[in-house]
Amino acid sequence: MSLNSFWFLLIAVLWVGYFVLEGFDFGVGILLPFVSKNQAERRAVLTTLGPVWDGNEVWLLVAGGATFAAFPEWYATLFSGFYLPLFLILVSLIVRGVAFEYRSKYGKESWRGRWDIAITISSLLPALLWGVAFANIVRGVPLTKSAAGAMEYSGGFFNLLNPYSLLGGVTTLFLFISHGAYFLALKTEGEIRVRANKMGQQAGLLTALLAVLFFAWTLVSVSHRSWVVGGVTIAVVSWLAALYSNFRAREGWAFLYSAITTAFVVITLFLALYPNVMPSSNGEDTSLNIFNASSTHYTLKVMTVVAVFLTPFVLLYQGWTYWTFRKRINPSQIANAETGVLDTIHP
């Protein structure tokens, strides 16, 4: 395997990690007002994310950094052409992090209600826009060669809002909602668990319908059909297993199969791309691939040494975090659910 292919594979793995971990994270945020009916239940729902949500976002930072270092042409074209949707995602992630921290400062219902709305919206937007962005990359976008020889995105913002990409966005949105519901059913007790199980089944059936439409459209559009069919088959079987497990209230298995499905959705999209990293709708001559978009061989070699050394430590640390906070959470365990940490200072 060439270093170019290795780094394409590694970036795909990083996106798999991000979608699997941040996917349930977004899903829980979207479901917050629907699975919780009082402050104790809302605190319990958010406590399931408390130890892990910021660690989940590290996968995005590493994926972006790896893309910048290994394929600078891809990074430059992607982040300039998709500037507005990526900017909206960035703002959402910032607002989401602030909302997690600030909602607990005061116990006033209106204060917490506003931050809860912020959490829901800032979870929904990235879940939708990541699907739109990746669907556009697979479909191909208009690229032209600049005077300096670099490839530039020549379409506008509304060119990204085509029917195929919007279907991809809605599919990832409901995939993450279902994934989040399975996570909540696994991590909570009482009424939250019951509601999450029910919502996971409803959202899961809708996700299955959307995924069939999206993958069928993808198969018509791509050339590596045998690879894509293999990935789609695994994703479909895993999703059916997740629905069955959730129906039987086997939350651990439901979440595992949901994670496998999410992983293979990303893997299938990268299989559809390879060896391109950003196909051009204007023809292969203007497409970016793992060779014309990559850094030098020496750069890739040095990066490989660093990645092989550091990656196991990151995986071990995050695995330890999930193991340490593996127990279920019950709203009855939440002490002083109606009180914020600053209420005693500013009553």
Could you explain how this protein is built, in words?
This protein has helices at residues 3-35, 39-47, 53-70, 72-81, 83-102, 109-139, 163-187, 191-221, 225-247, 251-273, 297-324; strands spanning 143-145, 151-153, 276-278, 288-289. With 347 residues, it is mainly alpha-helical. It has one domain: Formate dehydrogenase/DMSO reductase fold (Up-down Bundle), CATH 1.20.1630.10. The strands form two sheets. A two-stranded antiparallel sheet has the order 1-2. Strands 3-4 form a two-stranded antiparallel sheet. The radius of gyration is 21 Å and the shape is globular. The N and C termini lie far apart (64 Å).
C-alpha termini separation: 64 Å
- Quaternary organisation of the protein chains: single chain
Gyration radius, in Å = 21 Å
Low-confidence stretches: none
Mean pLDDT over the residues: 90
What is the domain total for the residues? 1
Which architecture name does CATH use? Up-down Bundle
Q: Spell out the helices and strands N to C.
A: HHHHHHEEHHHHEEH
Biggest sheet, open or closed, and with what strands and sense? 2 strands, antiparallel
The helical percent reads: over 70%
CATH class: Mainly Alpha
Find the CATH superfamily: Formate dehydrogenase/DMSO reductase domain
**In total, how many beta strands?**
4
Strand content: under 5%
Q: Specify the number of helices.
A: 11
**Strand neighbour order, sheet with most strands:** 1-2
Query: Which fold name fills CATH's third level, the topology?
Result: Formate dehydrogenase/DMSO reductase fold
Secondary structural class = mainly alpha
Shape: globular
